[in-house]
Specification:
By secondary structure, this protein is of the alpha/beta class. The chain has one helix spanning 53-64; strands spanning 2-6, 24-26, 33-37, 42-43, 51-52. It has a three-stranded mixed beta sheet, with helices on one face. It has a two-stranded parallel ribbon with strand order 4-5.
C-alpha cells in the first residue's frame, strides 16, 4: 500500500481538484495507492473546516480492499 498527499495532476490520471472537492481517492486492491488532496486541511480529530485524516483513511482503505460504499449509517463506527 502506498499512501501520499498529492496536489492537482500528480500522474495517476485522476487529478485532485483543490479545496472543497474530492478530498482523497484510492485504487482497487491490485494497485494499492491512496492519495489525500494536499490542498485540504488535515487533522486528527474533529476541527471545524478540516478533515479527519483517520476517518478518510479508513474510508479509502475500504476501497483498497475492494469494498464499495455502504448505505448503513454509522457503518464505520
Amino acid at each position: 500500500m502506498k499512501i501520499g498527499f498529492q496536489r492537482s495532476d500528480h500522474g495517476d490520471g485522476f487529478p485532485l481538484d483543490g479545496l472543497g472537492g474530492t478530498i482523497a481517492h484510492s485504487f482497487s486492491p491490485t494497485d494499492g495507492r491512496l492519495h489525500f488532496d494536499g490542498d485540504e486541511s488535515w487533522v486528527v480529530g474533529v476541527v471545524a473546516g478540516a478533515f479527519d485524516v483517520e476517518t478518510v483513511a479508513l474510508h479509502e482503505i475500504g476501497h483498497l480492499l475492494g469494498l464499495g460504499h455502504s448505505s448503513i449509517e454509522g457503518a464505520m463506527e
